[in-house]
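#structure-requests
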Amino acid sequence: MIWGSKLMIPKLSTRQLEVAKWLAEGKTVASIAIILGISENTVNFHKKQAFKKWNVTSVTQLCVKLAFSGLISNPWKGS
């Protein structure tokens, strides 16, 4: 885990973060598998590990937490 300004941010592996970024773009597990050149089972493994680390149960929850932590682009933040 990495210490943020006031909260602890769980550290994702490079692959977990890649999968999360593609999920945030609305890609399916099958599409992500093709993009990354890995199996759908491997994509699901990385997705589940990210869910576990961030204590979430859905892609939406994961994406919101990652966006507000600054790990993926935040569509709600003003430019």
